[in-house]
Structures are given as C-alpha cells and as structure tokens.
Amino acid sequence: MRKSKHPLHPDAPLKLTDHGRPVTRRDLICQGFQKGTAAVLGGSVFSLFANPRSAEAALSSDLAAMREACGIATQGAGKIPFICFDLAGGANIAGSNVLVGGPGGQMDFLSTAGYSKQGLPGDMTPQSGQGTFINQDLGLAFHSDSQMLRGILERIGADRAASINGAVIPARSENDTGNNPHNPMYGINRVGANGSLLALIGSRASDSGGNSLAPSMLFNPEVRPTKVDRPSDVSGLVDVGDLVGLLSQSDTVAVMESMYRISNAKLGAVNTGSARDAVLKDLMRCGYVKSADLADRFGNPAAIDPVADPDIVGPAGIFSFDEFDSDGEFRKAASVMKLVVNGYAGAGTITMGGYDYHTGDRSTGEIRDLRAGRCIGACLEYAARVGVPIMVYVFSDGSVFSNGMLDNSAEGRGKGVWTGDNQQTAASFFLVYNPNGRPGIVGGSLEEQAIHQQLGYMRSSGDVETASSPAANNVNLLVETLVLNYMALHGEQNLFPTLFPQHGLGNASLMDRLTAMMPICDGVIGNPV
Predict the structure, then answer these.
(1) Residue 119 buriedness (CB in 10 A; 0-12 / 13-18 / 19+)
(2) Other beta carbons less than 10 A from residue 142's beta carbon
(3) CB distance 400 to 440 below 8 Å
(4) Interstrand relation of 82-87 and 345-352 (parallel, antiparallel or unpaired)
(5) Please, what sign has the CA dihedral across residues 420, 421, 424, 428?
(6) In this predicted model, what pLDDT tens digit does every residue of 449-466 receive, in sequence order?
(7) What is the pLDDT of residues 165-215, one digit of tens each?
(8) Which DSSP state fits 119?
(9) SS (H, E, C) 52-74
(10) CB 462 within 8 A of CB 493
(11) Which of 8, 262, 296, 298 has the fewest CB within 10 Å, making it most exposed?
(12) What are phi and psi of 418, to 5 degrees?
C-alpha cells in the first residue's frame, strides 16, 4: 500500500526529482514556477482596425457608407472564433481524459495494460463496468471520471452539451522541449480569422502567443499575437483620448464626424499634381472615418472589459467574483475569450503552466486537469451566451505515463500515479459548439463516423501508432490537420491546397479521411448550414 500525500495546490511549482533544475523560461512555465507577465504591445491607432464582426452603434449614413470602402466592414471576417489551450509541460489527454482507441475509433478498446499506462487501473477501463466509465455528453467520448470533463460540464449550461461535438488526434510530440511547433494560430489567421482590434492574441509574449512554437512555414510577423492574459491588458488595448472624458460618447462621435466632413470638403479643393493624389486623399479620409468609428464602438471602456461583462463575472456570470479575484487562470481565460468570442480578435492562445505533473502522485495532476476543464468550459459557455459558434483546441508538449501504482487519496480516486514523461501516449483534441445544434461527424455509417471522430489511432499497448495518420509522428502536420478541420467547419476544405501549397496531408481523398466534422456554416458564421 503506497503512503498517500497531500496534493499540491494548482499554482504550486513542481519540484521534480527526475528533472534538472529549471533554468529556461520554458522550464519555469512547464513546472509552474512562472505564470507569465509582459507588456501589451500594439501599433498605431490606424493599425487597430481590421474587419469588426459587429458595430456597437450606428455612425451617420455618409460615414457608414465609407466604412466598407476603408476596409472597416461591419460584419468582420465572420469566421468561427478559435481558442487553443497550450498545457505546458506534457499533460495527460489520452485515456484518463479523452478516450483513444484502436483503428476502429474510440470504442475499439486498448488492452488493460495499455490503459494502465494511461493511468487507468483494470477496474476503471472503458470496457469494464458495462460502459459506466464512458461519457459521451459532449459527443466526443471522455472517461467518465475525467477531471477535464468534470470542469467543462461545471461551466456549461445544462442544455449546451447537446450542441457540442469533438474529435481526438493521437499524435506524438517531444517531451519538455520548446521545439514542438504545436501552435496553429498563424494557420487559422491565414484562412481568414481576424478581429476588429487585433488579428491574434496570446497569453505569452512570444512569436506564437503561447508556450509551444508556431510552425516556421506559417509564421507571419504582420499578425504576431499581442500578449493578453488579464483584464487590464484588454481594457488597455483601446485609448480614444481625452475627448471622450470631456464629452459624452455620442457627442464625441459627432465631433469626429464633423472633422471628417470639414476635411473632406477641403480635400476637394486641393490638387497636389501627384500621381498619388487620389491615394493620399483616400488615406486621409479613411483616417478620419476610422477615428470616428473607434470612438463610436469603443468610447465606452466597458464594451471590451471582461470584468464589466455580467455574463463573465458576477451572480449570473460564468465566474463568481470570489473565484475570479482569486484565480489568475480564470482571469486569463476570461480576457482571451472576451476578445475572441466578440470578434475583437480573430483567434487566441491560452497557456496554462504546471502540466509537467508526474510528481509521484495522481492528485496533483487531477486538480490541474479540473482547472483546465473549467477554463475550456468557460469559453464554450461564453460563446453560447453570445450566440456564436466556437472551436476550442487542446494540446500539450508530450505526455505522461503510469507504472500501475495507484493513488488512493480523495483526489487520486484509485487511479494510476503519473510516473514520468512519455511522448508515446500523447494526443490532442478539439471541441466545437454550434448554436444551431450538435455538429455532425463525417460518415454515412456509425463505423465511418467513429473513424472520423478519432483521426489516427493507438496500439493496444497504449502508444500512438505513428503510421495511423500524417499527424501521428509530425507536429507540423498535426497543425495542418487542425487547420484543415477548422476550414471544413466553414465548408472551405477544398481551398486548403491553394492556401497551403506545400502541405503534407496528401491528396483530396487522404484529406477527406482527416476531416472530422460536417460544415456548420457556409464560409462565414452569418450563413449557418
């Protein structure tokens, strides 16, 4: 009988005996020694505008007509909001959280020894107990005692689960290295995701916006993610100057509109004699239009402040005041989801540290998985309250394994102790919420759907079968697979070879096999399927 010990607080750093002393920034994040702080970086006022999803109020008709000509379309990019969770350190996903099976899908069960490696003792495997350890409330099959699932279900409304579906991708990635190009944000932006304030955001001040790298072939310095990990980062994104403090918001907009009309009248009397005359005049006109639009939509700071949103914080909010004030991970998730779900940013990364949790017990990892689930569930619930679809992607660098020793503490619940790192048991997954009902899985039969819901498979031993999909042994191709599935939700997967001409996913037939879900909209979310 193993002596139980108290689980670590979810914010406590992990002091691992089989790892060297953390010295790099990445080591500190994975082991929970560093939470991640940095300054908000931004461009000029004119750089803050890119296709907003909706206007908060109406400009005068003459300026409203100019918005589209100046690239300030009132409906924005219209793509499905996208948030990814980067669980730094090598979290468990397969088996104890999301079920992963053999070639026949999630219900093509592994051996008892395979599940033991993934932290499940023989009496808790999915094939034992006549299905009592299988939960399909979210469409995607989870282990019924998954703490990620528990956290998700805690945060979503009772009727939300019926509008959610997902898929899992068994795929190896290196343990404890900053060289995993896991982050898909630049690919998501390339296929059209954009925001009214920022293209991309992330909770780390890095090129990817997260802990893991972005694939080098997708990197685009023009849309490098802006660091956002707290409400003050959000409210500090927009400054419309002192005029709003002196006048009401409507009066401020009226002043800006008058400035546009006066300047436009004077421009008509000016002729520079340059071949660029018309271009220069358009730039000046659009500058005034954009300033008026900025004051119109963001003159009230509460418009983008997550703390001021009663759907996020408060008696009827996703987070209570007490838990929001006491947990930085909740504030981080709230800040990113506020911007992405409302279309102020096209996509966002939330990095959560301390997931290198092979601490000689099970309880420490369970507590951290629960908090990750609560943040994932918060994003899904907030999208439901706003009334838009969302895609949430969860990945980690490497994974962990169990040697079969059990943790019988209250938090360990008799499951396998996490013994050490093991990239062979790794997987990623995504969930999609659709306001119009649960997204359908590709395939005409239940057998076909089972294969499309699990893109690749594991060996009976609980290890990734590296030949089961292009993504299984190549993190760059894992990102391409994820982006392909994002495009498929818009019915645009046929455009993938054009946007990514050097991709490694094979021909159209092979790409169809890597597509999990049927479209939920036709090009933009304003055209639901």
Answers:
(1) buried
(2) 28
(3) no
(4) parallel
(5) positive
(6) 999 999 999 999 999 999
(7) 999 999 999 886 668 999 999 999 999 999 988 899 999 999 999 999 999
(8) T
(9) CCCCCCCCCHHHHHHHHHCCCCC
(10) no
(11) 262
(12) -80, 120
Provide mean pLDDT across the span 130-142: 95
Which whole-number Å values give the CA distances from 493 to 216, 355, 517, in the listed order?
22, 33, 11
Taking the C-alpha atoms of residue 412 and residue 406, their distance in angstroms, rounded to an integer, is 8
Distance CA 302, CA 383 (A): 19
CB proximity list for 304: less than 8 A, separation 6 or greater:
197, 234, 235, 237, 238, 298, 338, 339, 342, 344
What is the helix (H) or strand (E) element at residue 168, kind and residue range? strand 164-170
Distance between CA 202 and CA 216 in Å, rounded? 17
Which of 4-8, 356-360, 364-368 has the largest mean confidence? Answer: 364-368
Q: Label residue 279 exposed, middle or buried (CB < 10 Å: 0-12, 13-18, 19+).
A: exposed
CB 333 within 8 A of CB 379: yes
CA angle 375, 376, 382 (to 5 degrees): 85
Residue 150 token pair: 């528990």
At 326, which amino acid appears?
S
State the pLDDT confidence band at 18, using cuts at 50, 70 and 90. Answer: low
Contacts of 446 (CB under 8 A, 6+ apart): none
Q: Are 502 and 417 in contact (CB under 8 A)?
A: no
**Could you tell me if 356 and 252 are in contact, meaning their C-beta atoms sit under 8 angstroms apart?**
no
Residue where the block lists tokens 């301390």: 354
Place of tokens 């006048």: 247
Q: Residues 49, 50, 52, 55: is their CA dihedral positive or negative?
A: positive
DSSP one-letter string for 322-349: HHHHH-HHHHHHHHHHHHHHTTSEEEEE
Give residue 369's pLDDT.
98
Phi-psi region of 414 (alpha: psi -120 to 50; beta: other; left: phi over 0): left
**Beta strand 521-522 with 524-528: parallel, antiparallel or unpaired?**
antiparallel
